[in-house]
Fold this sequence. Notes:
This protein is an alpha/beta fold. It has twelve helices and 15 strands. Strands 1, 2, 3, 4, 5, 6, 13, 14 and 15 form a nine-stranded mixed sheet that branches.
Amino acid sequence: MTKTASNLQIDSARLWGTIHETARFGATPKGGVRRLTLSAEDKQVRDWFREACEAAGLELHVDALGSMFGLRRGRDMSKPPIGLGSHLDTQPTGGKYDGVLGTLAALEVVRTLNDAGIETELPLCVCNWTNEEGSRFAPAMMASAAHVGDFTTADILSRKDAEGVTVAEALEAIGYRGETPVGKQKFSGFVELHIEQGPLLEAEGKTIGVVDSGQGVLWYDGKITGFESHAGSTPMPLRRDALATLSEIVLAMESIASKHGPNAVGTIGEAVIAKPSRNVIPGEIAFTVDCRSADADIMDALDRDLRASVAEIAARRKVDVALDLVWRKEPTHFHPGFVDTIENAARTLGYSHRRITSGAGHDACNLNTIMPAAMVFVPCKDGISHNELEDATQADCAAGANVLMHAVLALAGVAA
Ligand code: HGY
Ligand code: MN
Ligand code: MN
């Protein structure tokens, strides 16, 4: 029986089931998911996703960076598809919903349209983008960045993880170095569903976030070179202590971000002492910096202030600090027409909603640089994400998937 599109609802239990079925790939004792990109666990979920897409009648292809595309034919195949999806890789302390909700909701939309016998005017393309998280290989949103031309495929294939494994080797190891050239899959636009990863929707009791913008991102690689020496016999004034230096830089980052707040954040998330020993003053440390703001001028100010602070600390402590900007992603302003379409879907479906800026980066932010794109948010418990406690409700996940489906139907059109 062909239901009319207007009263269509996704199958909430089926979506919820897929989220929890795939959470076993990389499940952690604390209830999280550790599924680093291109790992054995990522292969498990990719294999599952491939099978599910093909069972839903999608024509699946994989590009040279492992991104997966499942095409659902439309009546008018002369036009590029509307893309929907997200990512299936997680952080080391990841949860069940970050990226997963958007990717599996895209599959659920297709399953629902199949069940209802609905053909869209434009084709649809369900996507799983490789390495959105940027934890194992930098930068984050790596594959969608290459898709829009911010990086060459060769550059990305040569990126190495902490063990020196390249992206190319990792792709081959799991059998996902595809044939399709990166960027060959064209789109008429892209819509991504994601958990908010922040506290606003829950705090305001809103079910849907209509995402109209996203913060810009600055990523730096840092290296501090001090001087190893004896922890017992080196007088304090003579030390060139790399860890004490980093400690000052961490606190400087915190005060710089607070100074430019509330529209600025700064984090030092990684620090590795080169040759650690309890009774040696640390001489060499590698560290990373992540700064963000929705305002490009504030991003420039964060960069200026951080560099000035690092120079002052280094000079005073007689150490060398190298700070290399390895990635700059400008703030995102999503396509107004797509944003309105999402807002209309939320309103028509009767869900409470508000406009919202994304604090996190997403593949849709990259895609928006070459095509119309926008996002749908749903709340997550206490705004927690990138933490094994990450949680969301079945009702909110279903609401987000319904808004995604009706926005996509409005954008792709329903064949007469
Ligand atoms: O870093 C981010 O914003 C995303 O979670 N990869
Ligand atoms: Mn994500
Ligand atoms: Mn994430």
